[in-house]
Specification:
By secondary structure, the protein is an all-beta fold. It folds into 3 domains: 31-135, Immunoglobulin-like, CATH 2.60.40.350; 143-243, Immunoglobulin-like; 258-400. It contains no helices and 30 strands. It has strands at residues 6-11, 14-19, 24-25, 36-38, 50-52, 55-56, 66-75, 77-83, 89-97, 101-111, 118-125, 128-137, 143-146, 157-159, 173-182, 184-190, 196-204, 208-218, 224-232, 235-243, 269-274, 277-291, 294-303, 308-317, 326-329, 334-340, 347-351, 360-368, 373-383, 389-400. The strands form 4 sheets. Strands 3, 4, 5, 6, 7, 8, 9, 10, 11 and 12 form a 10-stranded mixed beta sheet that branches.
Length: 402
Amino acid sequence: MKTLKYLAIVVAGFFFFAACQKELSFETGFGNVAATGSLKSSSGDCQPITISGLYTQDSDMGDSNYVTVMAHITTPGNYKIYTDLQNGISFQDSGLAIDTGLQSIKLKAKGKPTLAENTDFRVTFNNSTCTFTIPVIGAVGANYSLVGSPTSCTNATIQGTYKVGTPLGTANKVILQVNVASVGGYSIATSTVNGMKFSTAGNFTKLGSQPVTLQASGTPTKLGNATMPVTAGTSNCSFVVNVAAADTTGTGGGGGGTPITDINKIDTAWKFSQGQNSYQGHFDDVAITDSPNAIILELYGLNKSQDTGMVIFVAISGASKVVKTGTYKTSTNSIFEFYKNNANLDLIYEAHPGSTGVEVTVVITAYNDITKVVEGTFNGTALNPANQKITITGGKFKAKVP
């Protein structure tokens, strides 16, 4: 698997190496030791599973056909994550987990779907099992058209709340009307506009006018109305999504989530802003690792929808595992990265000792040696994927150190 970054940091006369997104690889070194972990969160809920590719009856699976699961590794070692065989296809990946914590793993599809129907799969890792559904469309495509083509989609119903910087979730959908002239498989999608996309696939089994629901994905980036062009077969139309101002009091698709206006009331949380965009979430993994003459505080966080993630590393001088209050800068002894939690772990913002002309200042404002809770702030400048300088403001974090 691809790591987000692998950086060498010079810290006051010593070096340490830190992996800013934990890596799954096929390197050797663990022998026959089996990895342990779970596909579920600490609350017992299955972690999100992302489906990629189009699944068509009687068609061979290719590189675009895979699902991405989130596995929390508790013991490094060799792993195998797999599904049952259903409708002629299955998903699997195996390799070596060299670190602990929440990790993104891509399961490749094998086989050929035999039936055009929604197909349920059970994915297993260690003693944990979760489920997901793949819509397999017919080899013979349906003949259908969007009602309202080629102008505005007729009676388009927008569901969910759309806010700048808030990742879209299961509550964010649009219901469109289609006329079906002949049954069969279908695939409908919009273009990506203002960081958002709507799509669906499946099979029409009856003729005539009927609704179809498209699921939203992505994160809105700008305030205002976004016109979404949608294509279905040879027809096309458009609908408008109103994007509200950034929400600084909640997370998750549709505007729900836990308010973190007062971050000090949260056991583990983070937030920051970049321009009009506000991001926030929880820490799914916190660790302290040893390095010569220093300890490294590692904070790994995801937002509620797990579409994006944040990493903060701080090198604290001293040989003992003691967190110290103080100021730490990405130009010398800390790292800040914010990324898309997808298969490629695409960077959104970054600042580290190798970043030229930018600097994020991380301040550990408090640490309780009894409760093991660390609190702090982070602000400054970072680089976006175009290597442009952006400003990070209002950064706060609170986490329990193991």
